[in-house]
């Protein structure tokens, strides 16, 4: 008789086991080269920061008669899960440790970067799932879940070697996502003069969490940050053409290039300037720095045709005169005056009566033209020498001042202009010479440069290229010059008299139509405006264009008959004056981790102050003084925070951070600013960098940046106490 004993085999049960771990609890170990630590909390986060899930897989099987069961792990079915960490596909390997009788499944994303481990004790079925690093989740602004079905990797084997695999969803581990968070930020207030270096620096601290990009190749598509510009203004006018582009990034910093267009003069005229700059995020220092390539610069045009008044004087006099004054002062604004005076040849204009340059008949740069003193006629409709015109043998001389110089023709000019225009009536084929009086604002050095204006450089109402009326330059709208059929105008801009790295400004000029045989040369004007209107620096020799009726030939490009019989009637003069309006720039910054979880947009407000009065806004502000010029006179504050500073919330950014050792303050108010300065100058001894005191209910902070006494003084309106930690 044959007895058949059918074997018994274990089977997978219908039981389901679950466990939950949270990326918030991930902490990098020395042997793990993956991304950073997790961050507790976040939208949709599970409670706690648990990275270990444990239990027993025995519930996933029924053993049958051939007890006991033993348990093991494989990599079966795991690749199909499609898991990634930091964009790297997860791979799997199993090992068995005989000493502990334990199977270990290790999931890795590249060499040296373990993502999780899953161990099972072979005899008991006890398991432990340990999350070591992040796993890529679906994109979103919440901490969503990723489910890992490990059942296909778990086997049970009975006593006589029969095996079975658990149901795929028998053990389901839920991995809760981590998401980035912005931990601190501040707005920035800094001076326009601090562009491009050092710019303005504020606070921007964020924690990317477990889903970091450390060690990856950064790009515009793989960046911690995205930046855009929001509503922004220069002065009161909105900027346009706002562009922010990713430039470079590493584990320690990220750089963005930005550009925008702003109205740089009276909005009704519409002159535009393109600004560029960079925004740099320091991931280590938790800061951001904005730097524009150039100052925000606005200009206006002051015109004699719109002058507030004209007053005549005798030379050296202060009493107004009305008849044929040798000096006339035009008030164009409260802080811009033009002093006119004139010279004219006497008699036949020969010999000693001829126009001279520097006392002789040879002009060289640095000199001016002169002759016998004459009188000037200046009004809102005309400016001339010995009448309403400028003729052969006459020189009109102009100087710019911030206050009226009266009749003092020896006074040094105190105002400057970046450019000028001269408008004429009855223009034909005339040419002329403009001698610019220039000052270098960096060292106050003075030079003069002669500019030769050829007929073709003169702008007329309708540009023309006809042979007998060659005036090809269109009238630029930005200057607001109105021309009729008989009018002409010539415009001289900064790039017509500055070459290379020069940055001269005009503080006066001379106008003459004939050099009267004086030898020398002048720069050939390019009468166009803007970038295409830059003069090249080429020079032309003073000359008489013989045989042409004392006129230059308008068909011959570049020709200038500087010694001729031209007569011009000036009907208006315009002077380009600069101002520095406040700029209010808004940036929206989003932090995004490696699996595309993003923070809400963070708004950073940057105020670039046109002057030295700073005003804070809502929220934390960082006031920047690192690039502020020193007030050499030390009679008043070099900068003022007029409102918005709160100690403990806002910060003052200096080259040296404040500490208990380098900061001192005096509680008793000083009698006046002079007394404060005296006390501060004594206290700032090379070891103490900051001295704070109160004058009349306002705080004053003196700073010593070089160990030799006061470098700058900041007035904080209404602030009577600060802490050294406010200085960063």
Task: Write a concise keyword list for the protein shown above.
single chain, 728 residues, mainly beta, ten-stranded mixed β-sheet, eight-stranded mixed β-sheet, 1 helix, 56 strands, 2% helix, elongated, T1SS-143_rpt-cont_dom, DUF5801 domain-containing protein
Explain the overall architecture.
By secondary structure, the protein is mainly β. Helices cover 2% and strands 41% of the residues. It contains 1 helix and 56 strands. Strands 27, 28, 29, 32, 35, 37, 38, 43, 44 and 45 form a 10-stranded mixed sheet that branches. A hairpin with an 8-residue loop joins strand 23 and strand 24 (272-282). The longest helix has 11 residues, at 673-683. It is elongated, with a radius of gyration of 39 Å. The model is unreliable at 30-35, 546-560 and 629-636 (pLDDT under 50).
Element layout with pairings:
Blueprint: E1 11-12, E2 17-22, E3 52-56, E4 61-62, E5 70-73, E6 84-85, E7 88-89, E8 91-97, E9 102-108, E10 114-121, E11 126-131, E12 145-149, E13 154-157, E14 163-165, E15 171-176, E16 181-185, E17 187-191, E18 200-207, E19 225-229, E20 233-234, E21 237-238, E22 240-249, E23 253-263, E24 272-282, E25 287-292, E26 298-303, E27 309-313, E28 327-333, E29 336-344, E30 356-357, E31 369-370, E32 372-374, E33 376-378, E34 383-385, E35 394-401, E36 419-425, E37 432-439, E38 446-453, E39 459-460, E40 464-466, E41 469-471, E42 487-492, E43 505-512, E44 521-524, E45 539-541, E46 569-579, E47 583-591, E48 602-609, E49 613-615, E50 621-624, E51 639-643, E52 651-653, E53 663-665, H1 673-683, E54 690-695, E55 698-703, E56 712-716
Parallel strand pairs: 2-15, 17-48, 17-50, 38-44, 49-51, 50-52, 51-56, 53-54
Antiparallel strand pairs: 1-4, 3-11, 5-13, 6-7, 8-9, 9-10, 10-11, 12-15, 13-14, 16-18, 18-25, 19-47, 20-21, 20-47, 22-23, 23-24, 24-25, 26-46, 27-28, 28-29, 29-32, 29-35, 30-31, 33-34, 35-43, 36-42, 36-46, 37-38, 37-43, 39-42, 40-41, 44-45, 47-48, 54-55, 55-56
């Amino acid at each position: 008789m044959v007895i058949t004993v059918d074997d018994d085999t274990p089977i997978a049960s219908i039981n389901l086991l679950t466990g939950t771990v949270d990326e918030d609890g991930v902490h990098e170990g020395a042997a793990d080269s993956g991304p950073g630590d997790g961050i507790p909390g976040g939208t949709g986060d599970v409670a706690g920061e648990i990275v270990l899930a444990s239990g027993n897989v025995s519930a996933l099987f029924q053993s049958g008669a051939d007890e006991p069961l033993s348990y093991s792990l494989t990599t079966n079915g795991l690749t199909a899960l499609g898991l990634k960490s930091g964009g790297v596909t997860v791979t799997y390997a199993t090992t068995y440790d005989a000493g502990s009788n334990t199977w270990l499944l290790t999931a890795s994303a590249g060499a040296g970067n373990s993502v999780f481990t899953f161990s099972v004790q072979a005899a008991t079925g006890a398991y432990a799932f340990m999350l070591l690093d992040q796993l890529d989740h679906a994109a979103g602004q919440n901490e969503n879940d990723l489910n890992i079905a490990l059942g296909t990797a778990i086997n049970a084997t009975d006593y006589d070697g029969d095996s079975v695999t658990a149901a795929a969803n028998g053990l389901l581990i839920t991995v809760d996502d981590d998401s980035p968070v912005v931990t601190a930020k501040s707005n920035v207030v800094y001076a326009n003069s601090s562009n491009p270096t050092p710019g303005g620096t504020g606070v921007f601290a964020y924690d990317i969490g477990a889903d970091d990009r450390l060690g990856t190749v950064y790009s515009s598509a793989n960046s911690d940050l995205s930046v855009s510009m929001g509503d922004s203004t220069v002065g009161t006018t909105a900027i346009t053409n706002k562009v922010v582009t990713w430039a470079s990034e590493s584990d320690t910093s990220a750089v963005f290039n930005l550009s925008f267009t702003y109205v740089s003069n009276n909005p009704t005229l519409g002159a535009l300037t393109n600004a560029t700059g960079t925004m740099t995020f320091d991931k280590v220092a938790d800061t951001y720095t904005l730097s524009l390539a150039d100052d925000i610069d606005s200009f206006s045009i002051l015109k004699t045709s719109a002058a507030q008044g004209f007053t005549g004087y005798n030379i050296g006099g202060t009493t107004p005169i009305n008849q044929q004054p040798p000096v006339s002062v035009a008030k164009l604004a409260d802080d811009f005056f033009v002093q006119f005076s004139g010279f004219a040849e006497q008699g036949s204009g020969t010999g000693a009566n001829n126009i001279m340059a520097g006392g002789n008949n040879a002009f060289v740069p640095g000199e001016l033209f002169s002759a016998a003193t004459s009188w000037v006629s200046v009004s809102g409709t005309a400016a001339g020498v010995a009448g309403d015109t400028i003729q052969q043998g006459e020189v009109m001389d102009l100087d710019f001042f911030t206050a009226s110089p009266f009749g003092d023709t020896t006074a040094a000019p105190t105002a400057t202009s970046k450019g000028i225009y001269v408008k004429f009536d009855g223009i034909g084929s005339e040419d002329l010479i403009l001698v610019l009086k220039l000052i270098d604002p960096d060292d106050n050095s003075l030079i003069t440069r002669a500019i030769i204006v050829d007929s073709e450089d003169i702008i007329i109402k309708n540009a023309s290229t006809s042979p007998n009326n060659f005036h090809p330059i269109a009238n630029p709208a930005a200057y607001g010059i109105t021309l009729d059929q008989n009018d002409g105008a010539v415009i001289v801009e900064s790039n017509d008299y500055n070459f290379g790295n020069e940055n001269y400004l005009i503080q006066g000029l001379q106008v003459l139509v004939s050099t009267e045989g004086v030898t020398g040369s002048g720069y050939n004007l390019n009468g166009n405006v803007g970038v295409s209107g830059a003069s090249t620096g080429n020079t032309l020799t003073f000359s008489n264009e013989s045989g042409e009726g004392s006129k230059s030939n308008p068909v011959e490009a570049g020709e200038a008959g500087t010694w001729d019989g031209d007569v011009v009637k000036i009907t208006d003069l315009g002077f380009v004056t600069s101002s520095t309006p406040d700029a209010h720039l808004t940036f929206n910054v989003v932090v995004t981790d490696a699996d595309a979880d993003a923070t809400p947009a963070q708004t950073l407000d940057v105020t670039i102050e046109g002057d030295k009065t700073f005003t804070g806004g809502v929220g934390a502000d960082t006031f920047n003084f690192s690039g502020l010029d020193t007030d050499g006179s030390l009679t008043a504050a070099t900068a003022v925070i007029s409102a918005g500073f709160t100690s403990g919330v806002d910060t003052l950014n200096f080259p040296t951070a404040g500490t208990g050792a380098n900061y001192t303050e005096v509680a008793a108010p000083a009698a006046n600013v002079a007394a404060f300065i005296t006390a501060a100058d004594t206290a700032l001894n090379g070891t103490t960098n900051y001295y704070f005191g109160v004058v009349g209910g306002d705080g004053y902070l003196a700073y010593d940046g070089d160990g030799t006494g006061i470098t700058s003084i900041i007035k904080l309106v209404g602030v009577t106490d600060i802490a050294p930690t406010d200085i960063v």
